[in-house]
């Protein structure tokens, strides 16, 4: 096969190009990446990070925001809690929206694959609680050990407790008919 064109050609290094300056200017122009949408919408690109955070009522340095109290024998702490020179919060809605979002209950996104659910149901249906028998079953394609199978069944129990109870309840009449 012939070689790709241009691969055999020697590439020359450009000594006149200042790569440090190019890198610095690209970094300077880049805006800070902000994950929270509330902060992103209230952000003013013409102000510094410290000024933006102070206007929103957020702390730039957590060590300065919540200092460790000095409990010396002769010192008393002011009961006001106000520090002299504290900045005025001009955008309190940002903190309020973030607190509201944080107080919402977290929805469960834990799901199992359909294949794993079918596998666990098949094993329980055919072998009950005998994990050693399950490990020797021909449908055990991944050659799971008895402990691994038990762990998978426990995961299924934890993710879908109602479905598991209904499934076990539906198995009991079948066992009664067989005996």
TrEMBL record:
UniProt entry tagged with the keyword Metal-binding: no
Domain of life according to the entry: Eukaryota
Keywords assigned by UniProt, alphabetized: Nucleus
Compartment(s) of residence: Nucleus, Nucleolus
GO cellular component terms, A-Z: nucleolus
Record InterPro entries: Ribosome_biogenesis_Nop16
Protein family membership: Belongs to the NOP16 family.
Name assigned to this protein: Nucleolar protein 16
């Amino acid at each position: 096969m012939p070689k790709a064109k241009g691969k055999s050609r020697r590439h020359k290094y450009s000594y006149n190009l200042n790569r440090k300056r190019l890198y610095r200017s690209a970094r300077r122009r880049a805006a800070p990446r902000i994950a929270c949408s509330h902060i992103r919408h209230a952000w003013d690109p013409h102000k510094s990070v410290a000024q933006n955070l102070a206007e929103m009522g957020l702390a730039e340095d957590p060590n300065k925001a919540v200092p460790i109290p000095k409990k010396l024998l002769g010192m008393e702490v002011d009961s006001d809690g106000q520090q002299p020179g504290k900045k005025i919060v001009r955008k309190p809605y940002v903190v309020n929206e973030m607190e509201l979002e944080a107080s919402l209950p977290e929805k469960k996104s834990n799901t199992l694959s359909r294949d794993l659910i079918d596998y666990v149901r098949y094993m329980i249906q055919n072998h009950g609680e005998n994990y050693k028998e399950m490990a020797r079953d021909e449908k055990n394609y991944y050659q799971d050990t008895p402990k691994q199978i038990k762990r998978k069944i426990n995961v299924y129990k934890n993710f879908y407790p109602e479905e598991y109870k209904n499934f076990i309840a539906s198995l009991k009449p079948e066992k009664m008919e067989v005996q």
